[in-house]
């Protein structure tokens, strides 16, 4: 009989056992990344993140798992359920704590229900809902799961959808000019002008992987990250020791784009690289026209073209990405609600939200910067 367990530390699972449950194509699912968040001060109970990884065991063999957290708020999730929490409060019910299956601070689609067989995957989700109800938690949520995990979810797991802007190479672009050539004249001209203006200001780029980054590079990138969070009045979660940990344990997955001027870094973008995808995560830098677009978007596209990567996901939100070649793509999440009356009401709410999201995607698609036969 399979044995389900909530684990309070990922270090309680050997890295090899955890990583045997996924194919290694998505760096955010790796034991090194998730355990590193815990070990280097990025997850704190006072910020609402308490590790509760849900696992399934056959004796002492790990057969399925979901990276999970007990949450006392909805910060850092990128799937907004503040209205749900407010509705619970209006009826005198506690929405928190809730359980969340996700990668902290990372709105990145990837495997969530990790298992060796589809039977273990389905069993894991059924046992999860039962344990959440038994423990008195309001709900269970699994954010940014891929569509191919849909069959594992029973109908009482509500589906939500949202839009992200992503760059995909349809297969024919070998260099940046070919990418621009697929665009209409207006957008192609605007991008060339943006890039030329920044180049005239004397900005150049260094691109370093984790095993190439000096301690100064990592400190500079972390400083830019802190700067951005300070400018927006948010609390930074990632620590310098965590970046140093990634550089050691995931040396080719960590990619840093450093903008240089007069021999010193003036901006940086921190990315992770998967098997076929570049994931843009954080950026910071000086106030120079075009610096953000070049550092966060154009340098990443050039990297993908040079390295043979077919996708670039630069992060959540941002309609301004559309004009720069990032088209709308649907992302997904699932939600199990313990209270039947709320589950019924939220099912109708989710259906309406999905319809609105589909309409929004159609509107965005009509404003594609690409020629009709190009992408």
From TrEMBL:
It comes from Stenotrophomonas bentonitica. It holds the Pfam family FemAB_like. InterPro entries: Acyl_CoA_acyltransferase (IPR016181), FemAB-like (IPR007434). This is GNAT family N-acetyltransferase. It comes from the Bacteria.
């Amino acid at each position: 009989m399979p044995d389900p367990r909530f684990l309070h530390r990922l270090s309680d699972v050997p890295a090899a056992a955890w990583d045997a449950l996924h194919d290694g194509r998505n760096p955010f699912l790796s034991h090194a990344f998730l355990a590193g968040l815990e070990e280097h001060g990025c997850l704190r109970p006072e910020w609402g993140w308490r590790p509760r990884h849900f696992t399934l065991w056959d004796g002492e063999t790990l057969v399925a798992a979901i990276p999970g957290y007990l949450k006392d708020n909805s910060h850092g999730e990128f799937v907004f359920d503040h209205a749900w929490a407010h509705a619970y409060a209006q009826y005198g019910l506690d929405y928190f704590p809730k359980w969340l299956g996700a990668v902290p601070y990372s709105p990145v689609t990837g495997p969530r229900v990790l298992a060796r067989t589809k039977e273990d995957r389905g069993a894991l989700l059924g046992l999860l809902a039962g344990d959440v109800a038994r423990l008195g938690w309001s709900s269970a949520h699994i954010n940014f799961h891929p569509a191919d995990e849909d069959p594992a979810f029973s109908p009482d797991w509500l589906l939500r959808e949202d839009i992200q802007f992503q760059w995909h190479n349809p297969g024919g672009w070998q260099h940046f000019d070919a990418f621009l050539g697929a665009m209409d004249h207006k957008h192609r001209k605007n991008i060339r002008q943006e890039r030329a203006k920044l180049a005239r200001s004397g900005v150049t780029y260094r691109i370093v992987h984790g095993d190439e980054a000096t301690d100064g590079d990592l400190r500079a990138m972390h400083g830019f990250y802190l700067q951005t969070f300070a400018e927006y009045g948010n609390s930074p979660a990632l620590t310098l020791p965590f970046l140093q940990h990634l550089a050691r344990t995931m040396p080719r997955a960590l990619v840093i784009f450093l903008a240089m001027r007069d021999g010193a870094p003036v901006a940086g973008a921190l990315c992770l690289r998967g098997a076929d995808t570049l994931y843009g995560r954080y950026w910071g830098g000086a106030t120079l026209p075009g610096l953000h677009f070049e550092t966060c978007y154009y340098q990443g596209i050039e990297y993908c073209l040079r390295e043979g990567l077919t996708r670039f996901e630069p992060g959540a939100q941002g309609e301004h990405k559309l004009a720069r070649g990032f088209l709308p793509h649907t992302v997904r999440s699932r939600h199990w609600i313990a209270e039947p009356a709320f589950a019924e009401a939220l099912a109708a709410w989710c259906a309406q939200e999905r319809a609105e999201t589909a309409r929004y995607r159609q509107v965005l698609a009509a404003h594609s910067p690409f020629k009709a036969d190009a992408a």
